[in-house]
């Protein structure tokens, strides 16, 4: 460890380390990023780094972070990235860095098997009664999990080689809001979640997901160990993740969960039924407002439903206080029921008195409405918990315009830099915009998109990821083109995502039609993907309640600071699916003519990878045919 390690020292170590990678080649962007991170840690000045796909971002922040000897938390937006760090990058550095360091992964409590709940579920006695409603197959899975618990070192669900039924896992795990904590649990000492926390406290590098980091921020900083540096990977999602973790969500499902925990310990079916009923009444009051923002002060019918729910929880709390179960397991069930109902009570209180600068709305789906409350601006929260107390590194392949301002980073306190991409986009990729198409709101737009798709997909020989901004547009296109194209067309609603991506990757000429869920997080290098199409610039819905509140806060610049950065980043993420390695080649086709004509078009184009551009479809078709010839 060298706390004074200069950017040059870090660069030398990174060069030595990456030379051990199979098929290694120099990556100037990775080197530059490592130097920037080293300088940021040294000078304690935040840095925002845009680093294109293939830069090798993880090593570029891990090497300087470890060499600095500081305590570092890496917050990843996706589970896939967390797994990549845990199974690839950190073990690799362990072996090759030449400097010992401790690292750990920490997840939310419900990811770990709870030994106390497992004991209750498998002991003979009244704990078993809770399982009576479960199907025999689910009970068989619980028995399997009990066997696994004797051999696993971590109790982390991700280690299982099979996917348990959610009801089986639910029976042997607890949420953070239910767990009474190690000091009040008879199995707190051998507890898997507690062991993970102890490892986290000793780690030099701790990897969490941004959701857990957001809970840490919302809790006032009590969830994670002290740290000097935080790295936010996939930082383009930071604002939304912090907003959702700092807010609250109340649904009928939460009332049912509390009712179940009360039923497990209080011998009064009427009480549990009343709690579940209060949840159903709240859902009925929310249903007419589904998808809508709630004007404050809240409508009386909603306040009455929340207040009624709270009264039933008060009765439950009283009943729980009045029982004193003699057996340890029953005492634990009482504690869990108390904690779950207290947590819901606190959220009901907050919902009935929404704090200033927060927005309330009813989220879907329509048949399961939920009341959500979130801060409109996450800046003050992050300023107090992060920017003001530790050094932050924010990185992504696509940093949205104005990101620092959106998350409350003082522009003078942060360097924003772009280290480019290792790929030759100019030679390997062509951006085609169908400038001649009508405006997307025009009645003929969908039919014209289908014609464009047909011509381009034929030229590409299939191998297409066709992305749509709505399910309806996706289904209509799939239906229209199935009879016109000689290739297999997969749609996103056919299979779960991993199976879908697997089918698309292995059947080389197949096409995958998908929606916003696959604009990011799909990685298909090689010949199976030569064409990515996007029907429209993916502007957010005008009636999204949270964004509507953010627009009001932004005033006359709302389009520039709220809508445009989101649309540009999402389009760039979608376009980024095409080139995944140095030999990938292909076309990105955007059917929205606003990309070629609108006043804001350059803001969108500049966010995209630096591809050669054309408005002529024949040029795009030729490019695709040449690829097949090659
Ligand atoms: S402390 Fe006890 S109740 Fe909490 S997760 Fe661990 S074993 Fe389960």
Strand-helix topology:
Elements: H1 7-18, H2 28-43, E1 46-50, H3 57-68, E2 72-76, H4 79-96, E3 103-105, H5 115-122, H6 136-149, H7 166-171, H8 192-202, E4 205-209, H9 210-218, E5 229-233, H10 238-246, E6 248-251, H11 252-263, H12 269-286, H13 300-321, H14 328-352, E7 358-363, E8 370-375, H15 379-387, E9 391-396, H16 403-406, E10 414-418, H17 425-428, E11 429-433, H18 445-460, E12 464-467, H19 471-482, E13 489-491, H20 497-506, E14 511-514, E15 531-534, H21 545-554, H22 558-575, E16 586-590, H23 594-597, H24 601-607, E17 612-614, H25 617-629
Parallel strand pairs: 1-9, 1-10, 2-4, 2-5, 3-4, 5-9, 11-16, 11-17, 12-14, 12-15, 13-14, 15-16
Antiparallel strand pairs: 6-8, 7-8
Bound molecules: iron/sulfur cluster.
Describe the model:
The chain is of the alpha/beta class and 630 residues long. Helices cover 47% and strands 12% of the residues. The chain is built from 25 helices and 17 strands. The strands form three sheets. A seven-stranded parallel sheet has the order 3-4-2-5-9-1-10, with helices on both faces. The protein has a seven-stranded parallel sheet with strand order 13-14-12-15-16-11-17, with helices on both faces. The longest helix has 25 residues, at 328-352. It is globular and about 80 Å long. The mean pLDDT is 92. The structure holds iron/sulfur cluster. The site of iron/sulfur cluster (SF4) has 13 residues, from helix 5 and helix 8.
